[in-house]
Amino acid sequence: MNEAQQTLWQFMQQQSDKLLTQTLEHIGLTFISLLIAVLIGLPLGVLIARRHPLSGPILGIAGVLQTIPSIALLGFMIPLLGIGAKPAIVALLLYALLPIIRNTYTGIIGVDASVKEAALAMGMSSKQVLFKVELPLAMPVILAGIRTATVINVGVATLASYIAAGGLGEFIFGGISLNNTNMILAGAIPAALLAVLFDLLLSVVQKLNIKKLKAGAYALPVILLLMASFYFVPSAYGGKLTAGFTPEFMGRHDGNLGLQQKYGLKIHTTVINDAVMYNAAYEKQLDVISGYSTDGRLKAFNLVVLDDDKKIFPPYYAAPIVRQDALQKFPELEKTLNLLAGHITDSVMTELNYRTDYRHQTPEQVARDFLIDKKLYRPARNGNGGTVRIGSKIFGEQYILASMYSMLIQGYTNYNVATKTGLGGTKICFDALTNNEIDFYPEYTGTGLLVILQPTKQVLDSVGINKNKTYSYVKQQFQNKYHIKWLNPIGFNNAYALMMRRQQANELKIHTISDLKNYLSNTP
Amino acid sequence: MISVQQVSKHYGTNRAVNNISFEVAEHENLVLLGTSGCGKTTTLKMINRLIEPTRGQILIAGQDVTRQPAELLRRNIGYVLQNNGLFPHYTVAENIAIVPRLLKWDDARIQNRMHELLEKLHLSAAFLKLYPQQLSGGQQQRVGLARALMADAPVLLMDEPFGALDTITRSKIQAEFKDLDELQRKTIVMVTHDVQEAFELGNRICLMDQGAIMQIGTPAELLFKPANKFVREFLQAQRLQLELKAVLLQQVWDNLPTTTSTEAIKVLPADTSIWAAMESFEAGVVKFITVTKPGTDQAKTITFDQLMAAYHQYQNNLQHHE
């Protein structure tokens, strides 16, 4: 425990620059949106306190906005406002609106009727009643609303990192992706402290007596403005390109760190969630993104993969891995599974993924069409020579592969098949295989190497980058350690990749990562 | 001074006030009396346009109240509320100075007027820096009154001004109220549901029911010449006390024996009510009081029994006249 704390402390010291920037960005985001929310919410609250029929619809709309999941709201913002600060601020201010409007309304409605009547009867104008009586008396309730909004905003602002607006979410979500507890805590602890601190400060303001509150009411906008100024809206990018990388990619040696070391790539980089990344590239908010080379969205958004000419991304060639005892039990299995070997290239796999993800065809249909096209399809024999159990991980590509294997086994042999698809991640799938729950599933060489074998750095350096070396290393190790056989690779490589919009890549004549580097260093 | 002409206020089909008319003379105190929901408060609030009438016209000093903006109108009409309506975020001084500030008086004038009023209302200058909630109910009501009197408006509207006070504080403030010279110069319309208060403070009473005026007249007129069954029944429960308050010593003057004595300890003017005269007798201490007739040098010294006898005789005469 003590050791872990020390490591966290070391991590925070080591990353203190980033931590400071992220914290300031976080404060800035929170308060810019809060300031705008107050500027919008306060007058709206006053309006509906004066015109009661409007209170239902306006509070209703603000309430509905509040219930939209934050990620969805950020997603809606991209086509409208792009990525970065603007959509993040708009989303945050929408979340802050409800408590501010509602408390302004409740506060003003709650002012003693006889005081309001007296104010009118003394000859105050409607404006004087508002500013001299209603607002000062409602101020504690309004401040309570602003307090709630502040705490909500500190929390939601962590999600701003999903759309490249920075903030402490960069550490939090990066840490989650990289399974790095220190990184998570380095983001989460300051975020929690900020929430507690602002809540405390505002509670002090709230408890000041009404007299001092007058001064406080003037000070508040100034404080909000000051806090808001912590956030420097990212400067104009000019003619240069902007990259959006996932938090995981940012922290990996076979990711951004490798790009910097091996290629010397210096590009304006923002951190973004992979769910919105492809869309942001398509909407021209980003120019370069980190993705997976067989993702269906590559085709859907007309992106092109840059060639990794210096080979920093380890190969992730897919191949079925089979229990040794299953190969003996089903002598025809190996030959049948190898029917697919070499048939599916990167672009073919991308196309197949695209059909399931964007055309909403079933994996079975996509698999059958492909096999028929390749003249590999044979109708099922419905034999009864025993049952082969097929596993797959829980994403589209694996479902398609499992369907193909199922059809091949049924068409070429007398075996029956049982499919156990959707077995979570690598660990669940591999455990199912070693525990004899399934007979085989498609795996990737990179995963086998980095996740399952976890070899020393020396081994990694010698085998990690070369396709054939990786394959023969994992094949040999799996055989020795687990009695599991890697069959022939299917052909495609589902590795990390940098991608650009096809049109832009063509215009700038960028086809490899080195091209990208040269373009960036040659353009002022 | 105030003229209410065929005024109605309808809320949907509910006729809160239905075609009423009355006049309030200058320096007169008219009390709007009735049970809750009779329309008395609505009537009061239509005078300073806190409520706008559905129909009819209201004139103050001959001018239609709708001829100037409501804010400007209200700055020239004092207003006292039942729950005082003091601003909790203003000190006593700031509360009192609200209307003069709206009228843009200079500070010296405000200070002078404020201290003048504090003295008259028996309020300590130390209160000025306090907030309303730091004062007692009676003190708050006095501050409310000071606020209404501050700009010395000729017209004063009072909505149940003593309604929120306990009985002891109420009678004390009522007594002060009657003696306050500021109020003698004002035309006052006051709303109350308290019959005793109406009889105590009103020059005339306007008794209302269901949005209509049942009778308007002096306390004695309401008591002895009720216009209808409603008026009679409304006053029935407290009739004896009301009569004693409504009848003044000068009205029974002729029935009092013509004796003078030096034994009398108290001297009362003839415009004192029978009730007040009865209260000034004290068993074993004050057996005789002397009644003087203002403007003359006539005086009569009487005992409690003689006073009662004279009152009974006065009542008998009244019934014979009917």
List the helices and strands and how they pair.
The complex is a heterodimer of chains A (524) and B (322).
Chain A: H1 2-14, H2 16-50, H3 55-67, H4 70-81, H5 85-109, H6 113-121, H7 126-156, H8 169-178, H9 181-207, H10 210-228, E1 242-245, H11 247-251, H12 256-263, E2 268-271, H13 274-282, E3 288-292, H14 297-300, E4 303-305, E5 318-323, H15 324-329, H16 333-337, H17 346-357, H18 363-373, E6 387-391, H19 396-412, E7 416-420, H20 426-434, E8 440-444, H21 445-453, H22 457-463, H23 467-482, E9 484-486, E10 496-501, H24 502-507, H25 513-522
Parallel strand pairs in A: 1-2, 1-3, 6-7
Antiparallel strand pairs in A: 3-10, 4-10, 5-8, 5-9
Helix pairs in contact in A: 1-9, 2-5, 2-7, 2-9, 2-10, 3-5, 4-5, 5-7, 6-7, 7-9, 7-10, 8-9, 18-19, 21-23
Chain B: E1 2-11, E2 14-24, E3 29-33, H1 40-47, E4 55-60, E5 63-64, H2 70-75, E6 77-80, H3 92-96, H4 98-102, H5 107-120, H6 137-149, E7 155-159, H7 167-179, H8 181-184, E8 187-192, H9 195-201, E9 204-209, E10 212-217, H10 219-224, H11 229-236, H12 239-246, E11 266-269, H13 274-280, E12 289-292, E13 299-302, H14 304-321
Parallel strand pairs in B: 3-8, 3-9, 6-7, 7-8, 11-12
Antiparallel strand pairs in B: 1-2, 1-4, 4-5, 9-10, 12-13
Fold and architecture overview:
- The complex is a heterodimer of chains A (524) and B (322).
- Chain A is an alpha/beta fold and 524 residues long.
- Chain A has three domains: 227 residues, MetI-like (MetI-like fold), CATH 1.10.3720.10; 98 residues, D-Maltodextrin-Binding Protein, domain 2; 177 residues, Dipeptide-binding Protein, Domain 3 (Dipeptide-binding Protein, domain 3, Roll).
- Chain A contains 25 helices and ten strands.
- In chain A, the strands form three sheets. Chain A has a five-stranded mixed beta sheet. A three-stranded antiparallel beta sheet of chain A has the order 8-5-9, sandwiched between helices.
- Chain A is elongated, with a radius of gyration of 29 Å.
- The N terminus of chain A is likely disordered.
- With 322 residues, chain B is of the alpha/beta class.
- In chain B, 38% of the residues lie in helices and 23% in strands.
- Chain B is built from 14 helices and 13 strands.
- Chain B has two domains: 243 residues, Rossmann fold, CATH 3.40.50.300; 75 residues, Alpha-Beta Complex (CBS domain Like).
- Chain B has a six-stranded mixed beta sheet, sandwiched between helices. Chain B has a four-stranded antiparallel beta sheet with strand order 2-1-4-5, covered by helices on one side. Chain B has a three-stranded mixed beta sheet with strand order 11-12-13.
